[in-house]
Amino acid sequence: MSDDDREKYPSELAERFQVRLPPGLRDRIKEAADKNSRSMNAEIVARLEDFPTLQKTLFATTRERAKLADDKERLEWELDRLEDFRKRFFNKDGKPAPVLAIPQPLLDRISLEAEQNHRTLDAEAIAALEVAFPPKSIDINLLSVFLESLIGVSAPDGNSDYLNYINNALADAKQPWTVRAGWDGEVSFVPYATRAEQSNDEGGEE
User: Fold this and answer.
1) How far apart are CA 115 and CA 109, in angstroms?
2) Region at 192 (left for phi over 0; alpha for psi -120 to 50; beta for the rest)
3) What would the 3-class secondary structure string for 50-110 be?
């Protein structure tokens, strides 16, 4: 019987496809084949047949990861809201903070002012209350530092920009004071003087 007449083995009837493997991949395939008790060829065929299932699993895993990322973002947003709620309605010691009921028209005016000053609603309300209810006592040390900073500002080569800075800050804070310095070094605080009045006085002196 010639080789052409004998019945061929299944391995001889199978299609052949030559693949060039990158360095190291053959060793990994052999290791996996030995672990699964099959030949390298059978290992490769099994992996190829499992590819559609693996692809579906990978797609499902990717979709699940995206969902988890969305859930994580949503939970972080909820935590931020809870933290804001805690700061608004509870003190640092955990006790409930006082709640102020503000009429809607007043709240609208505060909101408009806050938007113009680029501040939050809370910050604007606090700033307004600070002006309306100034502290009954002062920090002597802080006042001393401020007064010492005024020494020498009236000299010919003194820092007139510093005086302008102070007066602008006082006017912006709606504080009814203007600081003036004479050429003799005398510094005075003028009550209820606005920046416009100060400018007029300086213009008259010229």
Assistant:
1) 10
2) left
3) CHHHHHHHHHHHHHHHHHHHHHHHHHHHHHHHHHHHHHHHECCCCCECCCCCCCHHHHHHH
Pairing state between β 177-181 and 187-191: antiparallel
H or E segment to which residue 9 belongs: none
104-142 as b/e: b if 16+ CB within 10 A = eeeeeebeeebeeeeeeeeebbebeeeeeeeeeeeeeee
Q: What percent of the chain has pLDDT over 70?
A: 78
pTM for the structure as a whole:
0.30
The arithmetic mean of pLDDT across residues 5-16, rounded, is: 64
- What is the Cα–Cα distance from 75 to 68, expressed in whole angstroms? 10
pLDDT of residue 13: 65
127-183 confidence digits (pLDDT tens): 888 777 776 766 777 777 777 777 666 555 455 677 777 777 777 777 777 777 777
Find all residues with CB under 8 Å of 61, minimum gap 6, and list them: none
Residues 6+ apart with CB under 8 A from 175: 131
pLDDT band at 34; cut points 50, 70, 90: very high
Nearest to 170 by CA among 162, 179, 161: 179
Using CA atoms, how far apart are residues 150 and 144, in angstroms rounded to an integer?
10
Least Cα distance to 87 among 54, 120, 116, 115 occurs for: 120
